[in-house]
Amino acid sequence: MTGSVLQISISTGGVPKHPVSVASVTAEGIAGDGHKNTQLHGGPRRALLLITAEGLEELASLGFAVTPGALGENITTRGVSRRDLRIGQRWRIGESVVIEITTRRSPCSALNRYGPKIQSAIFDELVKAEVPASPKWGLSGFYASVVAPGVIRPGDTIAVCESGDTDAVCE
Predict the structure, then answer these.
(1) Which of 11, 73, 133, 142 has a CA 20 to 30 Å removed from the CA of 85?
(2) 125 lies in a domain?
(3) In this structure, is residue 151 part of a structural domain?
(4) Strands (E) located in 11-111
């Protein structure tokens, strides 16, 4: 699976996050990105939030005014199927950054600014039970830890690390 980074977004805390042209990715996330609720967001196991552009487009077609960064994601991808994202996968972004999907994101009340029904549009009991067959799988996004830090930019390739990858951080 290969796609690209459509947008990288940060904020001082809360949603929406706003685009940046280059980002330094550290073990704690993107330099300069903040979180209002550090009990639920941020930290090494939730350093980055990824959402697919295609998922945002699905939500927009349902009437939600969402664009890249709106749901608080740091990385909006294009060409990566939300249906194929799995906890434990490692992904290479650009030349040096490697991340590992750690957990799916549970929606919070901050998203209600996009409509009172957005939480039920992106999350259901199957997603809560970690069942990828849910039609809503991946719409709320996935948190990731940073395995290998570095610099990323919009347009960078994002690709799942295959089991035969010769780079030790992708094994």
Answers:
(1) 11
(2) yes
(3) yes
(4) 18-20, 23-26, 29-30, 48-52, 75-78, 90-93, 97-104
Counting DSSP H helices and E strands in the chain, the numbers are 3, 11
Please report, for the domain that includes residue 24, its CATH number: 2.40.33.20
Instruction: Provide the terminal-to-terminal Cα distance of the chain, rounded to the nearest Å.
Output: 16
- Residue 53 has φ and ψ, to the nearest 5°, of -60, -35
Ramachandran angles phi, psi of 11, nearest 5°: -155, 170
The domain of 86 spans 2-158
* Residue 163 within a domain: no
Q: C-alpha angle 51/55/155, rounded to 5°?
A: 55
Global pTM reads 0.93
Q: Phi first, then psi: what are they for 38, rounded to 5°?
A: -75, -5
Residue 168 forms part of a structural domain? no
Q: What is the pLDDT along the chain (171 residues), one digit of tens a residue?
A: 899 999 999 999 889 999 999 999 999 999 999 877 766 677 889 999 999 999 999 999 999 999 999 999 999 999 999 999 999 999 999 999 999 999 999 988 899 999 989 999 999 999 999 999 999 999 999 999 999 999 999 999 999 997 655 555 675
Number of structural domains the chain divides into: 1
